[in-house]
Amino acid sequence: MAGSHAFVGGRILTMDPWCAAPEAVVIENGRIAAVGERALLAAHGDARRVDLGGRTLLPGFIDAHNHLSIAALHPRWADLSTARTCEELARALVAQAAREPEARWVRGAGWDETVGGLAPSRHDLDALGLERPVIVAHYSLHQCVVSSQALDELGIGRTTPDPPGERSSAAPTASRRGSSSSAPGARRTRARWPRTATPRAGVG
User: Fold this and answer.
1) What is the pLDDT of residue 178?
2) Percentage of the chain surpassing pLDDT 90?
3) Which CATH architecture does the domain made up of 68-182 adopt?
């Protein structure tokens, strides 16, 4: 952004608790030059005024690797980060199902087999009797376990071939565990995440 611009007339998010509600932001040649009360505009008389019209101004996001949509949806899923047993996992998922009675899938995330040894299978998820597909994502978000109903809905069965670079224990064994990952090293879920919204960043 060439030249000087002064943004006013809207909510300005700084992510700084010491300057949580500024009235104006001045940008000079693509850099933030000043943030604060509207009075600071007097020192930047040549800046072109940009009226936000009540919209919200966000700082630029600079991140080498970020999944914004997943981060936005995490609060809607059951938090499994403290589950150490299948019983604790079950309680969290049953509570999640009660919170979202209209959701097509019951979703949870954050289980970690390195803490407590929790390693859920599709049988554990089937035993909940939720009558909806269930998905529990690993804390790394590179593998997941789903229920039998979820496997059916995704069209994954004993004869389903593994895609290149990935491994699913749904096939070809007779005891489908219902998990999916890529091998070796990095793991990745092969199913699309059930989504309910796609957040957007910027002025809005």
Assistant:
1) 56
2) 55
3) Roll (3.10)
- Please check whether residue 134 is in contact with residue 93, taking contact to mean a CB–CB distance below 8 angstroms: yes
19 vs 71: CA distance, rounded Å:
25
Judged by average pLDDT, the poorest of 117-126, 176-185, 186-195 is 186-195
What burial letters (b/e) apply to 20-31, b meaning 16+ CB within 10 Å?
eebbbbbbbeee
150: CB partners within 8 A, 6+ apart: 105, 125, 133, 134, 135, 178, 191
CB atoms within 10 A of CB 196: 12
pTM: 0.57
Q: Which CATH architecture has domain 4-57?
A: Roll (2.30)
The answer to whether the Cα torsion of 44, 45, 48, 49 is positive or negative is: positive
The vertex-157 CA angle with 152 and 158, nearest 5°, equals 155
The residue ranges of every structural domain in the chain are: 4-57, 68-182
Backbone angle region of 29, left / alpha / beta, with phi > 0 → left and psi within -120 to 50 → alpha: left
Strands 106-111, 143-146: parallel, antiparallel or unpaired by DSSP?
A: unpaired
Whether 170 contacts 148, CB under 8 Å: no
Reported as a single tens digit per residue, the pLDDT across 130-152 is 999 999 999 988 899 999 999 99
132's tokens: 């909806």
